[in-house]
């Protein structure tokens, strides 16, 4: 019999954790035929990614996944064969006891945060803590062989390439969001945390010789864009034009539509983990706003990824790309960085597709998890 899986997710305010676990749960069901319960502590936030969700229902099935509301009022359940604690979340004490009481000890995994740092390969799949006789293991997603890989649904890259080759499909999708690009207009999506570097980039886009349409899904960066525009409010459906730049606010869309938004744009500015991965599957140049951490340790993670990603670029293109990312994440001069980057736009476009193919040749995260489970039997 196929193993049954429990995935536990504590939602924070940036949607990356629920975004990753929701994609993973769906894929384990759809592609591996597994029985999956997804335990989520905040259904209202989850609803942003899955509008069909009934937020007042503690137990329901969505897209083949059993969704359970995880609250302080914990009701006894049998532990699953495979238990995933996403991003080091703490499991309920009664559930830990249920794990320990099983005749066959479950496989307990800590699905950790994504990183390109060298030490990830050495720590992947190593044993971690124990609860009684139940051993927990580290499981690290990653960009290189020897890690757990990245979330990638079967056929995703073929679907993306077909969509990008179909001008009518792209036009119809954008029209559904109320977006009507003009001929020759550059399309950029902007999904980021609050960032003082926003103003410098928007200044450069407004002064550019080529028109740009900036598509901003509702979120935390919207306040910075509003301040730059000098308007009292900026809401879904609003459009503003400053020089060569048209700014358009989009609704927060389900994951499949967000993928298509990324596929539709020439550049994608993204944040966190889930959208960071999806932007790489889009095969377009991307700008990552990494989540800020104390003592700037996030910048080490940023640099580790840049080392990997920019391999194969010419020295001038690599310098321009690195400068663009560093300016975005350290409140640097985005106007100068953007100008330098555009001199290498063609090379960066080719490189983004090449990088996507390279990542796509590796095992995907869900398959790596299933393989590890099978090897542990």
TrEMBL record:
Molecular function GO labels: protein-arginine rhamnosyltransferase activity; translation elongation factor activity
Keyword Glycosyltransferase: yes
Catalytic function, reaction form: dTDP-beta-L-rhamnose + L-arginyl-[protein] = N(omega)-(alpha-L-rhamnosyl)-L-arginyl-[protein] + dTDP + H(+)
InterPro entries reported for this sequence: EarP
Alphabetic keyword roster: Elongation factor, Glycosyltransferase, Protein biosynthesis, Transferase
Signal peptide bounds: none
Pfam families named among the record's database cross-references: EarP (PF10093)
Function, in words: Protein-arginine rhamnosyltransferase that catalyzes the transfer of a single rhamnose to elongation factor P (EF-P) on 'Lys-32', a modification required for EF-P-dependent rescue of polyproline stalled ribosomes.
NCBIfam families: efp_Arg_rhamno
Family statement drawn from the similarity comment of this UniProt entry: Belongs to the glycosyltransferase 104 family.
Protein name, as recorded: Protein-arginine rhamnosyltransferase
Source organism of this protein record: Pseudomonas vanderleydeniana
Source species taxonomy: Bacteria, Pseudomonadati, Pseudomonadota, Gammaproteobacteria, Pseudomonadales
Originating gene: earP
């Amino acid at each position: 019999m196929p193993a049954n899986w429990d995935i536990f997710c504590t939602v924070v305010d940036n949607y990356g954790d629920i975004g990753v676990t929701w994609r993973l749960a769906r894929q384990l069901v759809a592609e591996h035929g597994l029985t999956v319960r997804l335990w989520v502590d905040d259904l209202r936030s989850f609803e942003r990614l899955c509008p069909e969700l009934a937020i007042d229902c503690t137990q329901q099935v969505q897209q083949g996944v059993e969704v359970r509301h995880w609250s302080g009022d914990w009701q006894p359940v049998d532990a699953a064969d495979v238990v995933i604690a996403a991003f080091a979340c703490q499991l309920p004490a009664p559930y830990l006891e249920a794990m320990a009481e099983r005749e066959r000890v479950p496989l307990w995994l800590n699905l950790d945060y994504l990183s390109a740092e060298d030490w990830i390969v050495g720590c992947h799949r190593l044993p971690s803590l124990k609860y009684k006789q139940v051993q927990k293991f580290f499981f690290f997603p990653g960009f290189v062989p020897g890690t757990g890989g990245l979330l990638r649904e079967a056929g995703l890259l073929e679907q993306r390439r077909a969509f990008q080759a179909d001008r009518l499909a792209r036009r119809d999708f954008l029209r559904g969001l109320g977006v009507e690009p003009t001929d020759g207009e550059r399309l950029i999506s902007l999904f980021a945390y609050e960032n003082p570097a926003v103003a410098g980039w928007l200044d450069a886009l407004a002064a550019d010789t080529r028109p740009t349409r900036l598509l901003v899904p509702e979120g935390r960066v919207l306040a910075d864009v509003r301040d730059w525009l000098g308007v009292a409010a900026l809401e879904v459906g609003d459009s503003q034009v400053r020089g060569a730049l048209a700014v358009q606010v989009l609704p927060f869309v389900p994951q499949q539509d967000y993928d298509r938004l990324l596929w539709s744009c020439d550049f994608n500015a993204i944040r966190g983990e889930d959208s960071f991965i999806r932007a790489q599957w889009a095969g377009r140049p991307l700008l990552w706003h990494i989540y800020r951490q104390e003592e700037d340790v996030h910048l080490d993670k940023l640099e580790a990824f840049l080392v990997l990603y920019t391999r194969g670029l010419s020295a001038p293109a690599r310098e321009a790309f690195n400068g663009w990312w560093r300016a975005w994440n350290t409140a640097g001069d985005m106007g100068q960085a953007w100008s330098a980057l555009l001199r290498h736009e063609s090379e960066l476009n080719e490189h983004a597709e090449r990088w996507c193919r390279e990542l796509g040749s590796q095992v995907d995260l869900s398959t790596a998890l299933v393989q590890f489970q099978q090897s542990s039997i």
